[in-house]
Amino acid sequence: MDKRLFLLDAFALIFRAYYALVKSPRITSSGKNTNAQFGFLNSLMDLINNQKPSHLAVCFDTKALTERHVDFADYKANRQETPEDILAAVPDIKKMLQGFNIPIVECDGYEADDIIGTLSVKASQCGYQVFMVTPDKDYGQLVNENVFIYKPASAFSKAEILGTKEICAKWDIEKVSQVIDILGMMGDAVDNIPGIKGVGEKTAVKLLKEYGTLENILDNADQIKGAIGEKIRNGKADAIMSKKLATIILNVPCEFHEEDFSLSEWNHDMLSEIFNELEFRTIGKRILGEGFKIGSRENVQTDLFGNEIASKTENRKSAEESVQQDLFSQEIMPLKTIHEVAHQYLLLDTLEKRSAFISQLSQTTTTPPEICFDTETTGLDANVCELVGMSFAVKNHEAYYVPLPANREETLSILHEFDILFNNADVLWIGQNTKFDLLVLKNYGIEMKGNLFDTMLAHYCFEPEGKRSMDLLSETYLQYRTVSIEELIGKKGKGQGNMRDVELEKIKEYAAEDADITLQLKEQFVTLLKEKKLKKYLMK
User: Fold this and answer.
1) Average pLDDT of the chain?
2) Region label for 193, one of left (φ > 0), alpha (ψ between -120 and 50) or beta (otherwise)
3) Which end of the chain is more exposed for a tag (fewer CB within 10 A), N or C?
4) pLDDT tens digits, one per residue of 275-320
5) What is the predicted pLDDT for the residue at 312?
6) How far is CA 281 from CA 101, 291, 313, 318, 462, in A?
7) What's the confidence (pLDDT) of residue 532?
8) How far apart are alpha carbons 43 and 135 in whole angstroms?
9) Three-class SS string for 40-97?
10) Residues 6+ apart with CB under 8 A from 68
11) Do residues 133 and 6 make contact, with C-beta atoms less than 8 angstroms apart?
12) Domain spanning 180-234 has what CATH number?
């Protein structure tokens, strides 16, 4: 028998599953979002049916702090809070895994990738081929002749198995151990690993071709000329720390006992119970057989004449079948950031710059003129906060920021420069939570005439469930992670600053990005509103 062990990175796959279905969420009759559960189950069954593993386990992170958090307090500090629907899905997914008799492995103080790394070493020493099921690029450092990355299928590619040859080609390196060296230099914005400021992947690869390892690069920093040499010398401590943070730990206190990881008979009663709770009608039958049914006759509804009404579950049957067909055709792209997307964000800090910009917008030929607008303030209470600045966007990846002084009279003078725009009844003003911006301007005696398009309201029209912060909408619909407010003013609490304290260049990039992203969301949402025949409820 082939000894093939598949180790699944639970949360990487759960997040992927949840966002794959976020545009067409699955909601039970009780109002529960089951995107993550349904998507994860599909991924699991696809893996079992097509890859035929002999052994399998699913590895989870826990809430406990890890050694990385001890070494670097800001490790993963910029990550957004996990959506409540995902947190609520975890117990269901664990119950499904128990029903399949698939082991769940987790260990306080260690991340799932550490557990997978440790088990990979132990299993490969026992003669197993090990497949790490994850889209995470960091796992490349673990690949060898017996250990591989298994990347699930996407819209643009079939499922992919990556060995040493593929990893080295992907990163343009000579050996997989250099993956950690690259991460040590370029950092990782997702995990808030700093790297060397100003050094990206291409520079890191170029340096490794010459010096071989990060340590050799740092040892020879004095011989590296120009700005790169200076960046390396200044970033030495961050590079050393970043490499340590990016290195997957291989001595987690978990054991590989072959018999515990072997696929065995399912607990049909437990699976039937959880599938019933989650209303997995079609996939439940596919897994458990035609005898599986949702609910009982006690739940059948009738109309006034006693005729049976199809339940919400029945009505969703065709939708569920469609989702099963389409689930793997939706690509979950790695989230891009402001550092990777070309953009032009300009500062309008003089009368001349503002006048030229206003003149440019006043002469637009768009009908109606569409301007995305956003404010930056000293707080979240629109009735008492002060304006710090405002941003505008009329074209994707291009936006403008107008800083406003603390002196109220000076701010009013600048605001009135924009009267020709604010008083134009033909303008379509685009914003996210525009009620806040309108209230702030009202406190300065400014009224924006024209029509409004609010991306929060637009999203509510076709997706009334769940949260709708701009950060979440951006990740969901644009595959783009915005700059976190906490990067500028710190975490919530007594020590948090306000936007007035942020250096101008940083606030310009942050504020202009907000306007730019909101404009891009508007374009996406208009298309969705048209598709769902909802445009008339939000736009004239």
Assistant:
1) 85
2) beta
3) N
4) 999 999 888 988 998 888 886 333 333 333 333 333 333 333 434 4
5) 36
6) 21, 11, 7, 10, 25
7) 78
8) 13
9) HHHHHHHHHHHHCCCEEEEECCCCCCCHHHHHCCCCCCCCCCCCHHHHHHHHHHHHHH
10) 75, 111, 245
11) yes
12) 1.10.150.20
Q: Poorest-confidence range of 184-188, 268-272, 403-407, 415-419?
A: 184-188
Q: What b/e string do you get for 112-127 counting C-beta neighbours within 10 Å, with b at 16 or more?
A: bbbbbbbbbbbbbeee
Cα distance between residue 484 and residue 494, in whole Å: 18
484: tokens are 């976190």
Token couple for 302: 């009738």
pLDDT range class, residue 466, cuts 50, 70, 90: low
- pTM of this prediction exceeds 0.85: no
Asked if 260 and 244 touch (Cβ cutoff 8 Å), the reply is: no
Look-up of token digits 């055709």:
329
Task: State how far the Cα of 58 lies from the Cα of 112, in Å rounded to an integer.
Answer: 9
> What tens digit of pLDDT does each residue of 165-204 get?
999 998 999 999 999 999 999 888 777 788 898 888 889 9
> What are the beta bridge partners of residue 403?
389
Q: Which fold has domain 344-537?
A: Nucleotidyltransferase; domain 5 (3.30.420)
Domain ranges for the chain = 1-175+235-333, 180-234, 344-537
- In this prediction, residue 1 carries a pLDDT of 57
Write down the pLDDT at residue 24. 72
Please indicate whether the domains covering 1-175+235-333 and 344-537 agree at the CATH topology level.
no
- Residue 347 β-bridge partners: 401
CATH topology (fold) of 1-175+235-333: Rossmann fold (3.40.50)
**pLDDT in the model for residue 538:** 72
Q: How far apart are CA 389 and CA 249, in angstroms?
A: 45
Q: Is the pLDDT of residue 40 over 60?
A: yes
Torsion of Cα atoms, 17 then 23 then 24 then 28, to 10°: 70
Q: What is the pLDDT of residues 48-88, one digit of tens each?
A: 988 999 999 999 998 888 878 777 776 776 666 788 899 99
Closest residue by Cα to residue 96 from 48, 161, 131: 48
The H helix count followed by the E strand count for the chain is 24, 14
Contact indicator for 278, 295 with CB cutoff of 8 Å: no
Q: Residue 37: is its pLDDT beyond 90?
A: yes
Q: What are phi and psi of 194, to 5 degrees?
A: -70, -40
Angle between helices 281-288 and 35-51 (to 10 degrees): 30
Quick one: which of 436, 447, 451 has its CA closest to 369? 451
Rounded CA separation 332/279 (Å): 25
Least confident of 148-162, 189-203, 217-231, 519-533: 148-162
Dist CA 147 CA 526 (whole Å): 46
In the structure encoding, which two tokens stand for residue 447, read together? 């009224």
